[in-house]
Amino acid sequence: MSTSEVCYAVAVLSDCGRTRPSNEDAFGVSAERGVYVVCDGMGGAAAGEVASALAVGEVLRVLSGRPETAALEDAVQEAIRTANQTIHSRAQRDPQLHGMGTTLVGLVTEGRRVVVFNVGDSRCYRLRNSALVQISQDHSLVEEQVRSGTITHAEALRSPQRNVITRALGTETDVEPDLFELKAEAGDLFLLCSDGLTCELPDPLIESMLAADLSLNELCARLVDAANRAGGHDNITCLLVRAEI
Predict the structure, then answer these.
(1) In 3-state terms, what secondary structure has residue 24?
(2) Residue-range definition of the domain harbouring residue 199
(3) Number of C-alpha atoms within 13 angstroms, CB side, residue 186?
């Protein structure tokens, strides 16, 4: 199927939440080149905002400017490598930004082909036929403990270490992302989000909300509102991409 027969609708909403003084999340969209990114920054003062903005800017720049002949996975790896180096170098030059970093989750499309990529615990989900599946894999301490069988998923949700991430952009000279290749089907709905959403709302609730017959903008607004009503303890970003084939 040719690229011309596939289009992707998008909507995004980012909110400070109810307890944070500023929004350290960032997002970016290049609908023309099929690039969608969400980042959740961390660091003292405004460092988190700097890291997430740098990551979004670099990933969009590299992936939007990729040659038509470039292998998609190679372009994604190059974008993440460039973003990581940019953030790390900036932190080394400015003592006020030392130690800053950011999570990253994104997807890039070529026709029906979709490549999802992530570093950290910001997530990508896919809703297909009203069933929600998490595509990305959290790089977090509790997720590693769950995978090793040390703790259960229920224990991970209650763990005081549930916000400890094991990979981030910018904190080290190198970082290893995860990449997942998918084939989009008509009606597939992809959710990219920061943990300000997933720490407040369980997956079954997200699934039922996304299955509602509403516009993408309305779905984003409902998700963010629900996360705020559940506590809003962190910044909340929700980016929806729907395949229309």
Answers:
(1) coil
(2) 3-244
(3) 3
